[in-house]
Automatic annotation (TrEMBL), chain B:
Its EC number is 1.12.7.2. Residues 43-102 form the Iron hydrogenase small subunit domain. The keyword Oxidoreductase applies. It is an enzyme of class 1 (oxidoreductase). It comes from the Bacteria. The keyword Oxidoreductase applies. It comes from Shewanella oneidensis (strain ATCC 700550 / JCM 31522 / CIP 106686 / LMG 19005 / NCIMB 14063 / MR-1). GO terms for cellular component: periplasmic space. InterPro entries: Fe_hydrogenase_HydB, Fe_hydrogenase_ssu, Fe_hydrogenase_ssu_sf. This is Periplasmic [Fe-Fe] hydrogenase small subunit HydB. SUPFAM superfamilies: Fe-only hydrogenase smaller subunit. The gene is hydB.
Amino acid sequence: MRPILKHPLNVRIFHYILLLSFLPLAATGLLLFFKPLSQEGMQLTYDVHIIAGIVMALDAVAFTIMAFDRVVLFIARVFSFSGRDVKWFMVLGGYPQKFLLGKKVPIPPMNKYNSGQKLFGACVLIGGTVLILSGLVLWFIPHAAPRDIVWFLGQAHLVSGLVLTAFLPVHLFLAVYRFDDFKAMMIHGNVPYHDAAEYTPLWVKNEIAPVATNGEQLTSK
Amino acid sequence: MNKKKHLFAEDSFFLSRRKFMAVGAAFVAALAIPIGWFTSKLERRNEYIKARSQGLYKDDSLAKTRVSHANPAVEKYYKEFGGEPLGHMSHELLHTHFVDRTKLSS
């Protein structure tokens, strides 16, 4: 196997903290929306939501400051758009055909992220920022901020939270489906060369370079 | 965790400096715009509150009767009917009573 470093350590740590804070946030957010518990239960839910929200906000701010180059790279990747993306969305990455009909359709070559991942990335970037900023106002100064703006921020918080929560099962399912990528994000950061070449050929072709490792034989690209 | 077992990685930095600065500046601006917008809203709201409280103080200074116990109607009530402030009659008539119904609802 010829491994490619796909997710560096700082990205994996960021993703872990995001995972550990977003799961309780999504669960407690839904509980706060439907209010099924007693007064004490709802209070505890609210407290957990606030604490997890602080953890997620600090994680995002710290990563943006400490790894600003990766954030810029991510934004540049996520918001790049071409005819390939249109073609990808026309066949939805070939996933419905694969899962429902068991047949393989041709898919345009993708960069590090495919078009669906780019859409998800844009939602996470915009929605996450909206969640953090509106959450701060709703928590800190709901009494001091103008009433209509607090109402608007509450709606924005709700919609962003619901959209990102709705993405969650899709993200988890496809993450486990692409198991090599799953292991890369969760464990060692590496994907096998053949896996990357199959799913992300443009990335491998344009952006991947050999790395000198201690005494190990480099296999040519 | 990461013992550099990979043989390939992303080329050190494939974004040009110009593109990096453009995307980074756009990102920082996109973050700063809502914060600036909200701060200005908050400031304008505080201005309104300050103007409102100034107006109330002005009204107060212009008013003939500025405190409730100087109100002629109240003075007349105590003189002709209620007796003294906090007296028995006034307590019966003016005091508001509450019943705790919170425990009945559940």
